[in-house]
Amino acid sequence: MDFVYNANPSRVIFGAGSRAKVAEELDRLGIERAIVISTPDQSGLAAEIAKAIGGRAGIMYPGAVQHTPVEVTESALMAVSSVRADGCLAIGGGSTTGLSKAIAYRTDLPQLVIPTTFAGSEMTPILGQTEAGRKTTVSDPKILPETVIYDPELTVTMPSFISGPSGMNAIAHSVEALYAKDRNPVISMMAEASIRALGGALPTLMDDPSNLHAHSEALYGAWLAGVCLGAVGMAIHHKICHTLGGTFNLNHADIHALMIPYTSAYNRDAAPEAMASIARALGTVDGPTGIYQLTQRAASKRSLAEMGLTEADLDTAADIALQNPYYNPRPVTREGVRHMLQAAFEGRAP
Ligand SMILES: NC(=O)C1=CN([C@@H]2O[C@H](COP(=O)(O)OP(=O)(O)OC[C@H]3O[C@@H](n4cnc5c(N)ncnc54)[C@H](O)[C@@H]3O)[C@@H](O)[C@H]2O)C=CC1
Ligand SMILES: O=C(O)/C=C\C(=O)CC(=O)O
Q1: Is domain 11-154 given the CATH code 3.40.50.1970 in the classification?
Q2: Which of 95, 145, 264, 283 is 20 to 30 A from 71, comparing alpha carbons?
Q3: Ligand 1 contacts CB of residue 160 (under 6 A)
Q4: CB-based contacts of 274, cutoff 8 Å, min separation 6
Q5: Closest Cα to atom 7, ligand 2: which residue?
Q6: Is the pTM of this model over 0.95?
Q7: Which fold has domain 160-346?
Q8: Interface pTM, i.e. ipTM
Q9: Quick one: pLDDT at residue 128?
Q10: What pLDDT digit, counting tens, does each position of 239-282 carry?
């Protein structure tokens, strides 16, 4: 057995109520005047946490938006300078974490992240940002948050149309980790455990959105998924979601949730060990079928047509997806991708 395992160093505090440790963790990082980042929708939660840390909250910045536009980062950097902030405290989903990472990438300020969705971004040294309508991705050790507090009491406020797709976004990280070119036994173990935890928790969350035990399980799965995403390379699923999301400005989690049955089915015959691992985790005979069944419960959008795409858009997407070659277990051909997109357009079982 030959492999390389690269661990991304970060400190993780996990547990219901663990947000009570924010002040202690800021002290540990030597942060005295944080920029407190959130989306506008989550400014109330950010204000509550800021109140609990007193003077360590240097300035509030409730302006995070999806896909990390560079203009927003520049405005946040002015807020950083205005109080000479010495660290970032991000409270929210992947969009909020993205802004914190964008600041850290440019300033090397330390980051404490409190995730409130299952996106997994907090565990990766990857930043996607948008400039002039174009989204690009960069990876750098400065981007990786130093400390992450996972408090499942903070994910219970997600309505199921956000929590379901967000959980499927995490599952997609783990699925692709299982057939990554640079996979290794530790990450594969985490990926299977992540799919098991999320696959068990998501149906419960759809029926009972405030079930704290299920949130804890899902957040645990999301943590593992984030570790997987940060440690190994992704393939056709992440590439096609990046293309579809960026080109047609689609919601990030919704497009991941919709596409993962089809992308995993694309690789079904080329990655049998990964498929067996997914099937074991979900308790099904076939991995992609198990994922499809899960999306029927957890995804908010069930077809590319429902997301507003046309068949002509599928041709555009297939062309773009073929532009930059990348590793995938099954060769990426235009015909194969177009066929896969057609099935997703119609929302039929893969
Ligand atoms: N670089 C990386 O490793 C990764 C980056 N991302 C990035 O993250 C972004 C998407 O992040 P998501 O978490 O999917 O969505 P998001 O952060 O945009 O949140 C979606 C909506 O849900 C709200 N929300 C978040 N948590 C909530 C809660 N607990 N209760 C009620 N409302 C809540 C937010 O205010 C927002 O309106 C994209 O820009 C994506 O590219 C996502 C995964 C990995
Ligand atoms: O697609 C994902 O879920 C993983 C990575 C990114 O979203 C990169 C980014 O756009 O921040």
Answers
A1: yes
A2: 145
A3: no
A4: 175, 178, 179, 267, 287, 329
A5: 128
A6: yes
A7: Dehydroquinate synthase-like, alpha domain (1.20.1090)
A8: 0.98
A9: 94
A10: 999 989 888 889 999 999 999 999 999 999 999 999 999 999 99
